Amino acid sequence: MFSLSKPHFSLICCGTRELRERIQTVQTTQKITEAMKLVVAVRVRHAQEATVSGRPFSSNLAANAQRHHSASKMMPYPPLSPMPNP
């Protein structure tokens, strides 16, 4: 609700000039908020497009990693094997 301790925001003692300034301030804030929403919408759309375009790469990468992992079980690579306990 409205605070009566601050005369600037109180509707009782506001003049027409203060009301016009307050209306202008609210309208400016609404415009800024709408612009910010549009910017966020564009960023989300770009992020979604990047995710969709990266799917073939990530699926190929996962398939290659799986293939190399299964191949490495058949042929152990000594430098990557665990060290024996002394």
TrEMBL record:
SUPFAM superfamilies: ATP synthase (F1-ATPase), gamma subunit
Positions in coiled-coil regions: none
Gene Ontology CC annotations of this record: chloroplast thylakoid membrane; proton-transporting ATP synthase complex
Taxonomic superkingdom: Eukaryota
Stretches the record annotates as Disordered: 58-86
Lipid bilayer topology: Peripheral membrane protein
Primary location group: plastid
One term of GO molecular function: proton-transporting ATP synthase activity, rotational mechanism
Comp. bias (Pro residues): 76-86
Keywords, sorted A to Z: ATP synthesis, CF(1), Hydrogen ion transport, Ion transport, Membrane, Transport
Reported function: Produces ATP from ADP in the presence of a proton gradient across the membrane. The gamma chain is believed to be important in regulating ATPase activity and the flow of protons through the CF(0) complex.
Family affiliation: Belongs to the ATPase gamma chain family.
Protein name: ATP synthase gamma chain 1, chloroplastic
Annotated source species: Glycine soja (Wild soybean)
